[in-house]
Amino acid sequence: LMSNIGRQYDIQVLVRTGSRNKVIGSLLRSSRSTSMPGPCQRLGLGLCVLLLHICTVSSEGKVYAGARTPIEQLPLSPGPLGMANVPNRSSHVREYPRCQNSHNFGSTGEANTKEYMIQRLIAAPTYRVPFNSATYFCGIFPEHVYQEIIENFPPDKAFENYASKVKNCGGGGCRYTLSAFNIVKQKNHPTWPNFRGAKELYQKLMSIVFSKEFEAALWKKLQITKKAKRREFRILSDKHGYANGRIHTDLQARKIATMMFYLPVTDKTAFDYGTCIHTTEQWKKRNYLRKANGQLGAKRGDTGYDGEGDCYYKFRFLPNTGYSFKAGPASWHSAPNTFIEHYDEYDRNTILLNWY
Fold first, then answer.
1. CB 246 within 8 Å of CB 294
2. Is 91 helix (H, G, I), strand (E, B) or coil?
3. Confidence class of residue 261 from pLDDT cuts 50, 70 and 90?
4. How far apart are CA 97 and CA 324, in angstroms?
5. What pLDDT score was predicted for residue 84?
6. DSSP letter (8 states) at residue 125
7. Alpha-carbon separation of residue 27 from 9, 31, 250, 262, 316 (angstroms)
């Protein structure tokens, strides 16, 4: 219908987001046409606008703004819409991977949290390209555990580097960090109201993700053969546009595996704050362009600061999702940078696990 009508008439749809979604359909007569549309064409045009109106206004509440334009509302927890694949939101991104289908793994009580997470990890898709191996998982925590994590996320003053970062954080952005290993060593925390509850939570999470069973499942999924000698569990909060966008492999830090859990504070950053994984060719292209334009060494705010590199996959920054990959010479990946939509508006909260 659209292809037939499009040859004679331009269709312009303006989408507005806010407390309510509205669609204003403006049918502009093409300069190529000299006659008014017939009854059938007018009916077709009307149906097009009506369908666009229904698709947009049927979802009340928050809308995922995306990197370019608003799209249909997606639920905060993975569901029918959240599982669906979506069109690319950026010309730099080849594909936003979809979540695995929802499965019922039985009870999600305290005693079964570890088994639940292991099964979610096993069910997640495994990617052998652009490098071997990576995975993107959804609903990795039982819902009640994820809510506990959100409720017990550290207040700003509880982060270990708060005092040294807070003074200059508003200018160029900053990353607050806190080790869960240090949390469980403390008896109390003066700036953390519910510290005891948070301590118990992070102690439980570490006992799960660093258990023999969970690590065995992860090692098998990512085809890892090395033994881990050291582990790291960090809580991160990137604020006021902190970013570098640097494509790197993690191998230079002698890491064996990397895992990150996403803890978004808003639904507007779903297509903006996720991590990109790249091919070696994409990394070479990015580096070549930076060198050619004199951008190596540029800092945020500089004229030569580079934009987002081409992504083979970009993981959507949805609640209770995350990714993991095996570090290797080609495990190129990058965090969002300052050219990403919303990046100076909302905190980017995550949990980062590393095995060395």
1. no
2. coil
3. very high
4. 13
5. 40
6. -
7. 7, 12, 52, 41, 34
Instruction: Give the list of residues 6+ apart from residue 257 with CB closer than 8 angstroms, or none.
Output: 218, 219, 222, 224, 228, 324, 325, 326, 327, 354, 355
**Number of C-beta neighbours around residue 134 at 10 A:** 26
One-letter identity of residue 98:
R
Look up tokens 């869960």; give the residue.
180
- Rg of the chain (C-alpha set): 23
**Whether residue 21 has pLDDT greater than 50:** no
Nearest to 134, CA basis, from 14, 269, 277, 343: 277
- Per residue in 180-223, pLDDT tens? 999 999 999 999 999 999 999 999 999 999 999 999 999 999 99
pTM score above 0.70: yes
Strand (E) or helix (H) holding 257: strand 257-262
Helix (H, G, I), strand (E, B) or coil at 80: helix
Tokens representing residue 156 in the block? 């700003």
- Taking the C-alpha atoms of residue 174 and residue 167, their distance in angstroms, rounded to an integer, is 10
Instruction: Please report the pLDDT score of residue 297 as a whole number.
Output: 52
Which candidate, 114, 83, 133, 130, places its Cα nearest to that of 324? 133
Q: What pLDDT does residue 81 have? A: 35
How many residues appear in the chain?
Answer: 356
